[in-house]
Design brief:
- It contains three helices and eight strands; from the N terminus they run αββββααββββ.
- It is mainly β.
- The strands form two sheets. Strands 1, 4, 5, 6, 7 and 8 form a six-stranded antiparallel sheet that branches.
- β5 and β6 form a beta hairpin.
- The protein is extended, with a radius of gyration of 25 Å.
- The model is unreliable at about 1-5 and about 170-190 (pLDDT under 50).
Length: about 190
């Protein structure tokens, strides 16, 4: 994403919180032998929206940044007429994804401040920029802005080495036991 606001270089300092996504594997129900019990088999991975909360600075540069990014995705402004363009897009015209999508990295820090785990979201862009509530009662509160991001792919890295089979301390991963029903087994041999 092009630098569309000066705050873009410091965006990680404005991010107050991120809710890391759940892993949602979609399944289908099938009957392996066309009869008998129904079992579930995975068929897709669904990526949920990535919610983040950003602190807003006194000049509202963070709000302007996300509004400009959103306008770069879909030009929502027709205040200068239906034939006025912004970044080459007419009102309510969408740009190409490679022009507005980016990669986002969220690092999970350990107790010492070292990166323990990293999430990389590729093809990310905002799909909703939240509303901002202003009230006299919130005079001593920091203004925040909620932003939801969608993304195409998710990759995980970890600063510690190991295999996928290293589930945790003291745990054991066992290979699935072979079925007693195979082509060489008769029903009398199963106890």
């Amino acid at each position: 994403v092009q630098s569309i606001a000066p705050v873009a270089n410091d965006i990680e300092f404005y991010c107050q919180s991120v809710t890391l996504p759940e892993f949602d594997i979609q399944t289908s129900e099938v009957q392996p032998q066309a009869f008998g019990p129904v079992v579930r088999r995975p068929n897709n991975m669904n990526f949920a929206v990535l919610p983040a909360v950003f602190r807003v600075d006194q000049d509202l540069e963070m709000v302007k940044y996300f509004h400009r990014w959103t306008q770069h995705i879909v030009n929502f402004d027709n205040s200068n007429g239906y034939y006025s363009s912004v970044d080459g897009a007419l009102p309510f015209e969408m740009n190409y994804k490679q022009e507005y999508a980016t990669s986002m990295i969220v690092d999970v820090l350990g107790p010492t401040g070292a990166v323990e785990y990293s999430y990389t979201f590729s093809g990310a862009y905002p799909v909703n920029v939240g509303s901002i509530e202003e009230a006299w009662a919130d005079n001593d509160q920091i203004m925040t802005l909620s932003v939801g991001f969608t993304y195409d792919t998710l990759s995980l890295t970890c600063s510690k080495g190991g295999l996928v089979t290293d589930v945790g301390v003291g745990s054991t991963v066992r290979a699935p036991t072979p079925s007693p029903f195979n082509s060489n087994t008769s029903i009398d041999q199963i106890t």
